[in-house]
Amino acid sequence: MTGMTSSARPLLNRRLAEFGTTIFAEMSALALRTGSINLGQGFPDTDGPEEVREAAVRALRDGRGNQYPPGPGVPELRTAVAAHQERRYGLSYDPDTEVLVTAGATEAIAAALLALVEPGDEVVAFEPYYDSYAACIAMAGGTRVPVTLRPHEGSFRLDLDELRAAVTDRTRLLLINTPHNPTGTVLTRAELTAIAELAVERDLLVVTDEVYEHLVFDEAEHLPLATFPGMRERTVTIGSAGKTFSFTGWKVGWITATPALVSAVRSAKQFLTYVSSGPFQYAVAEALALPDSYFAAFREDMQAKRDLLSAGLAEAGFEVFKPAGTYFVTTDIRPLGESDGFAFCRALPERAGVVAIPNAVFYDHREEGAPFVRFAFCKRTEVLTDAAERLRKAFAR
């Protein structure tokens, strides 16, 4: 016996066969190997507020969260999440029955889709989409139905007619992301009103990923879908501490929804991580209570970084889609005489000493995303300045 299976069937579940190693792992390894500036994966290169970090240390020392926290999350954090939704958006949630803490937003997405989707159900999602969406729909046995956001007058926009046409009798759920990664689009009140009307008309559930809610720029405004008529009772809203407080390694996320929806998602979540991030939950509870000045300063800092990198990319010859939200900027490489984002990104470290992500990995229709490349600007100003200069030297004519 060699210990090998005699079956010709592949080891990996066929639902996951198309996914393989993520592009983020590949590009981060490339950054390390070449000593390049990594503007690929979206994580900050500095920690968040010192008082929040100290709150985690205090929780560790006080013995809070070192053992399994409660399944739904520690009461302090659930209360803080509910208070945040009320204060920011006028959304009232019961912290005991309508808030669930998760291992980051990624687990929240997985648990929601595993709980709410059955084999054969269709899930409508905007493409390009965060890569875990497709994998989680596949794991749930659902069929993903992409609706493509396309460039229009300097930003990527949703075609509402295309969205309506994508909904069929088999559609179970809309998976919405605003502010949108990777394009930086923030859905408008008119767009969200139309989505809400469609969901009510067709009796659809909605999972809405709002992890970049505090990163909206210029005149853009984040409007939670759950605030629209008929949506509170059918919407699972996902939030995260990682993006707002720059502690991505803590993996603290949450959902807010009706008791029935929370109960359903928790039924799946308890068999994924069960619980996680014990001491960090207490720290995030304190973070959510930070004054408005923190959130304003955080947004202003990111907007300045967006402007710095966007200007550098434009000067290097990229077409830049200036984001209204998130900490990513999408560019078109065709003005550089390029059209294949994969080839471009794999060569970029040698050409310019910078790493980026090809947007095509976020598309079912790869050709739609082929010429687009995403850069992250959640880095120190001096790092962005250096990256912009490298790109200018490599490409500016």
Describe this structure in words.
The relative contact order is 0.17. The protein is an alpha/beta fold and 397 residues long. The model has no long low-confidence stretch (mean pLDDT 96). Helix 1 runs parallel beside helix 12 (341-352) and helix 11 (292-316) runs parallel beside helix 14 (381-395). The longest helix has 25 residues, at 292-316. Strands 2-10-9-8-7-3-4 form a 7-stranded mixed sheet, sandwiched between helices. The chain is 42% helix and 16% strand. It contains 14 helices and 15 strands.
Q: Keywords for this structure?
A:
alpha/beta; globular; 4-stranded antiparallel beta sheet; 397 residues
Question: Quick gist of this model?
Answer:
The protein has 397 residues and is of the alpha/beta class. It has helices spanning 23-34, 50-62, 75-89, 104-116, 131-139, 160-166, 189-202, 241-245, 259-269, 278-288, 292-316, 341-352, 366-369, 381-395, and strands at residues 37-38, 99-102, 122-127, 143-148, 150-152, 155-157, 171-177, 205-209, 235-240, 253-256, 319-321, 328-332, 354-355, 357-358, 372-376.
